[in-house]
């Protein structure tokens, strides 16, 4: 019985201590933050429209993301923020194989590719709400993206003749719009755990891709153009420095 009383008293003391700490943390006013987080990058629908004269048969798969962000509250509710996010996504080449099987029936084909690398720098206003040790932010952003389209390679045999189609990787930039939301929970006077969701949408043109067709011992190059509407949703968590 004595052990039970000791446990109950210990729980009560811990509860009181936690309540006191939460009360103190909830009354400390921080105007700025710097956040470092990591998570997943999910391809979603873009707000931008594609170009029917410059289609593409490859698309992005789910990948990883890293983000550094910072913001400063100018008034009680409104502030400005900026973030840099880098996403690394796999590549789906299934459509490449499907299309060449339709245009060259009778062959057997395999495909390989690199990864999409997408970097975004965005900034904009945000609105914040506070409830005790919890902080909730919502934002709209605009900025610039750097997109690397991966290399692709199709390899197979068409009527016993080896055939390979290689397309080079390329990098280009474009304007970006987006939005996002964050939740932060204070754990000490100057640090908080953070969760965020950020959406970006852009459209990037690759006007000078080199496609190399090799049939047997014969080889030829062709310049092609692709336009990629890109939408990415980054979900992540990390640590915030509050000041």
TrEMBL record:
Keyword line: Signal
UniProt keyword annotation of Signal present: yes
Name of a matching Pfam family: OMP_b-brl
Signal recorded as keyword: yes
Signal peptide range in chain numbering: 1-19
Domain of life, source organism: Bacteria
Residue intervals of the Outer membrane protein beta-barrel domain: 35-211
Protein name in the entry: Outer membrane protein beta-barrel domain-containing protein
């Amino acid at each position: 019985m004595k052990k039970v009383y000791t446990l109950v008293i210990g729980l009560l003391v811990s509860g009181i201590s936690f309540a006191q700490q939460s009360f103190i943390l909830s009354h400390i006013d921080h105007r700025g933050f710097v956040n470092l987080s990591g998570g997943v990058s999910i391809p979603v629908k873009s707000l931008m429209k594609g170009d029917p004269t410059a289609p593409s048969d490859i698309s992005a798969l789910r990948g990883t993301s890293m983000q550094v962000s910072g913001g400063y509250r100018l008034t009680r509710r409104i502030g400005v923020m900026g973030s840099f996010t880098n996403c690394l996504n796999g590549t789906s080449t299934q459509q490449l194989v499907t299309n060449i099987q339709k245009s060259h029936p009778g062959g057997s084909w395999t495909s390989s590719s690199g990864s999409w690398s997408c970097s975004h720098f965005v900034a904009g206003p945000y609105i914040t709400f506070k409830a005790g040790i919890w902080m909730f932010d919502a934002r709209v952003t605009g900025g610039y993206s750097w997109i690397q389209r991966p290399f692709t390679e199709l390899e197979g045999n068409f009527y016993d003749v080896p055939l390979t189609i290689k397309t080079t990787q390329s990098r280009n930039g474009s304007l970006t719009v987006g939005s996002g939301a964050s939740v932060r929970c204070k754990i000490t006077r100057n640090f908080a755990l953070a969760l965020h969701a950020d959406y970006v949408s852009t459209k990037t043109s690759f006007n000078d891709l080199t496609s190399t067709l090799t049939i047997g011992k014969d080889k030829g190059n062709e310049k092609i153009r692709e336009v990629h509407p890109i939408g990415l949703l980054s979900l992540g968590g990390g640590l915030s420095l509050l000041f």
